[in-house]
Design a protein that fits this description.
Radius of gyration: 18 Å
Distance between the termini: 23 Å
Largest sheet: 5 strands, mixed
Helix content: 10-25%
Number of helices: 4
Strand order of the largest sheet: 2-1-3-6-7
Structural class: alpha/beta
Shape: globular
């Protein structure tokens, strides 16, 4: 967790800027700020890990004093699900891309049985919403994890690199980014 909250600024090779430097400033032309989060997840707790990802994304968005409240002297973010345009309530993100460890949402060492149980097809790949809902319920998931990550990324204005086990057939999970 030492690197959590830090971003690395990478300039294009043709720019006169340094190639690597720590930053928390505004995005400059041609600069991609990447945060590599070396954080632990709870094995097989996808819904809980999605909540942890939401908190991690919020940590890279400083509070906007006009839209946040103070509780006991500390700023609090509004509920992440309070409004579809919640990104407006947050300040400008301090990173452009957040990378989490491989299979972070499911946990890496969950075992083959748990991995098969948690694997789901890509959103829309089932052919029907009913079949997708059935598979999500069988995996113990409230929503499709990749849809949730996409919604969070849009809400906070931060791209997220994440992997998740994909159910390609009824018996063969595979992982895709």
């Amino acid at each position: 967790a030492e690197y959590m909250g830090r971003a690395t600024e990478m300039s294009s090779p043709n720019s006169s800027n340094e190639h690597l430097k720590e930053t928390r400033g505004p995005v400059e032309q041609g600069v991609l700020r990447i945060a590599i989060a070396q954080v632990h997840s709870i094995p097989a707790d996808v819904n809980g890990n999605l909540r942890r990802l939401e908190a991690l994304l919020a940590s890279f968005c400083p509070p906007d004093s006009d839209t946040h409240t103070q509780v006991n002297g500390t700023h609090t973010h509004p509920s992440p699900t309070s409004t579809p345009t919640a990104a407006v309530a947050y300040g400008r993100p301090t990173v452009d891309l957040l990378m989490v460890p491989e299979l972070w949402l499911t946990g890496y060492h969950v075992g083959a049985c748990a991995l098969r149980r948690l694997a789901v097809p890509l959103p829309g790949a089932c052919g029907s919403e009913e079949e997708e809902r059935r598979l999500l319920c069988a995996a113990g998931l409230e929503e499709h994890p990749l849809k949730c990550v996409g919604e969070m990324a849009g809400r906070y204005g931060i791209a997220v690199a994440v992997t998740y086990p994909e159910l390609e057939s009824a018996h063969t999970p595979d992982t895709h980014t």
